[in-house]
């Protein structure tokens, strides 16, 4: 019996119940008699019966599937966020389908079209920079959507996250409060990333009246951080501090400075942005901004579930992020 895949009719015959009752049990209907539920689940297990998701979608018009599209899975900040989304959805009987856009709007649109065809009931997207075609597609289909990693209460689409401009501004203020006036900034590509653009804006505002040409754009990778460090050290006046708008870049910067014999923070202070898992264990431990990736995933998933289950409106939610002070920044006051 264990080798044969049972059907809903097999379970109905074994329990003496109708296929409709068996279906209600397997779909988690809370109104089913507890004894009936126990009998159905027992025989479903014995008969090796597992409901067909596609059939359930056709009969209920609900796939219990939520789609998320993120730029990359190479950095742990996204891994923590997606894990929280999946776990929270799973607690309510929903599945997560994930796609990677590589920060390419055309690739993101193609992925979204496939996910819509699969029956995704809602979309969770990173940032607010998306093609009009994608947003129009979701609007025409009546598919709920929200943006994460940003907070903008003026956005027509609900946003769950933090104010990237304000956080970057606060990072510069922190360095300045420790006596640093000569600051360089390393950041990833601004094309395709409204989050990086917002952070650069915060830096520019905080450094108002100073030479903002000391912003260095490189690939968002450890090697990109190495390249940023090389370029910064070639500047006319060597900075006393380098702010990296991603911990990944900070790691590359630290590697290069240490490889040429410079000491952090005695020779140059380094500050990151993300609080990736390894940042507390680097040498020296990295002062950085702790982004609430797990909380963001939990809140986003819960809002989607509440909307799908109860038609509860999705509203923008600001999340708090804070500076984690460690050993990579010294005071020179």
Structure description:
This protein is 44% helix and 14% strand. It has 333 residues and is an alpha/beta fold. The chain has a 6-stranded parallel β-sheet with strand order 2-1-3-4-5-11, with helices on both faces. 39% of the residues are buried.
Which structural traits does this protein have?
333 residues, alpha/beta, 434 Repressor (Amino-terminal Domain), Rossmann fold, 3 domains, six-stranded parallel sheet, four-stranded parallel sheet, 44% helix, elongated
How do the strands and helices of this protein lay out in sequence?
Blueprint lengths: L7 H8 L3 H8 L7 H13 L6 H8 L4 E6 L5 H16 L3 E6 L4 H13 L4 E5 L5 H10 L3 E4 L10 E3 L2 H14 L5 E5 L6 H13 L8 E3 L4 H12 L7 E4 L2 H13 L9 E3 L16 E3 L2 H18 L6 E2 L3 E3 L9
Parallel strand pairs: 1-2, 1-3, 3-4, 4-5, 5-11, 6-7, 6-8, 8-9
Antiparallel strand pairs: 10-12
Helix pairs in contact: 1-2, 1-3, 5-12, 6-7, 8-9, 10-11
| Helix residue percentage | 40-55%
Unreliable runs: none
On the 0 to 100 scale, the average pLDDT is: 90
Radius of gyration: 25 Å
